[in-house]
Amino acid sequence: MPAGLPTGAVLPLKHSQTSVEFGFELALAAHLESDEAVLSRQLGASVHGRRVMDIVRIEPGPEFERRVSLTAETIPPAAIRSDVGPGRARYWKEAFDCHPERAQRATEAAIERGFFEREREGGRTYVRQATRYPDWVGRIVGIENKPDLGRPGDLETQLLTDVELGLLDAVVLATASHVTGAHRNRIPDEVGIWRFDPETGEQRVLREPSRLPVEQPGVEILDRASAQTEIRIASPGAKARARLALAERAYGKGWRTYEMPACARVDPDEDGLPVCPWKGRVVRPPTDCGPDCGGHDPAEPPAFDPAQLRAARTAWEANPDGQTRRQADLGRFLE
Fold first, then answer.
1. CB-based burial of residue 37 (10 Å sphere; 0-12 exposed, 13-18 middle, 19+ buried)?
2. What is the spatial distance between Cα 254 and Cα 250, in angstroms, rounded to a whole number?
3. By three-state DSSP, how is residue 79 classified?
């Protein structure tokens, strides 16, 4: 019986599918965490639609170490794509091709994170790049988690959308279920298949994913529920912009984005997962915890520092030195 179970209490035998999938997702993310990739969860992976990928794994490109040294946070993609360069400082309003409010937010964030330098002249703010943006993004792999293939939901449409759009270099389905021939027939051939046991951490590769054509136009499925399928074409340029935004968001966000519940029973494990001995599993605090839980024991949330865990286990640094350049040093990256 799990530690902390009150005398006479009955351990819940059933819990919501959402909680099961949440625990599966966190266990898989902890299993995949290493120096070899950037991991994040629940990120938009579309150009025109609303596709959200459960886990995104970004393998380092040739200048990954330079990205690590810049900032631990997301560099606004609008700032990266702007006409602000490392040479002559530009008036910020003239350097962006987007709404002025968005441009202003991107400018301020880029300055705060050391990507832009600010100058003031005649009451105006001028900016220049403090350092060249590095080529740090390698292969991007999307992982769709479906622990129970008996309850697939919109899985077939989601995976078909990923394959036809080709925003990611590869897509994998991760499941705890036994994968039958019938299951495989509903999964696009390009999608890889992993079987993962969240209790033991055992991972079996049942099928390797195919490389998707990220450099070519893609077809994004927006609606397949009606009699007619609604699609939009995504150009290579639009896909490249979406990939950059996805990578930067993943770098700044990480995957431990949850908070610990205010309960004395919750005991985070070595991976920082919110384990509840009373329930005997990882809990999803917003839905599993609180006064409605029979085992709720009000207390301050247990100590939890996701940044410290991430820094200890990966190449990501919480407080990098940065690579701000003075104007006299611009020749290093203008060659």
1. buried
2. 6
3. helix
Class for domain 74-132+316-334, per CATH? mainly alpha
Q: Please work out, in degrees rounded to the nearest 5, the angle formed at the alpha carbon of residue 212 by the alpha carbons of 149 and 193.
A: 25
270 within 8 A of 261, measured Cβ to Cβ: no
Tell if the pTM clears 0.85, that is, is over it: yes
Determine how β-strand 170-175 pairs with β-strand 137-145: parallel
What pLDDT, in 10s, does the model give residues 202-216? 999 999 999 999 999
State how far the Cα of 154 lies from the Cα of 156, in Å rounded to an integer.
Answer: 6
Q: Show the tokens assigned to 304.
A: 């939890």
Cβ neighbours for 188, distance < 8 A, ≥ 6 positions apart: 159, 160, 163
Residues whose CB is less than 8 angstroms from the CB of residue 281 and which lie 6 or more positions away in sequence, other chains included = 15, 19, 23, 275
Q: Which residue has the tokens 């330079």?
A: 66
Domain ranges of the chain: 18-64+135-253, 74-132+316-334, 260-304
